[in-house]
Amino acid sequence: MADEKNIFKDLCLDLSLEIEAYNAQMAYEPEYHSRKHFIDVSFTMSLLISQNQLISHSNSSWTLTPLDCWYLLLAAIGHDYGHNGAVNFFASQQELNSIAKIHQFFKKKNIPENDAIYPLIKNLLLSTDPKFRPEIIEKALQQPDDLTLEGRLSILLLESDLMGSSLPERGIELGNLLSLEFEKSNPKLAGIVASIPGRLHFLKSVEFISDQAKSLGADLMLKQSILRVENEIQ
User: Has residue 54 got a pLDDT over 70?
Assistant: First the structure.
């Protein structure tokens, strides 16, 4: 995937370094949307991509090209670039900020503004806005045959973004960090996120749809997480 003509390896590494430098100079680095979150999502995206060869043997429509994989890695690395820890006060506020920063990064790398990577990365990052997640998941479940390539890439980015928070134990830790982060901008939401009913609501809003996620067993892991929280409530 990283031959001499492929610019994406350097793009991914350089974007990582830029985000590292940006977050290192922040007066306040969010508890949840920190550099650790970028690492988590890059790791879970790598896990999803690693299933590509397995699912390709079944002629899955989810099979990715090497270019698709690079787009996803780049989106995973940069999807929350510049996040200041606040909730969105208008639609896609944080996501639009990240998009603007990544587009500026592309320009510094002399990628032409008419390159298809600009609208693709924009649409992928917009899909991570929690406001749009239910609609994206519902459409994918109800009309799986109508999913475009961009739609599948959006689902994979969502899955990588939410996988860590869906884990039975690690997910609780991440939920507590997100609650601490939200206390500064939305104390009411912070309380909901930290509560057992709030965690159950979150888990039931998540779906692992892609063949990559199912190959990993992420859908079964999610069911275990839900069962564990339901048992706590009882």
Answer: yes
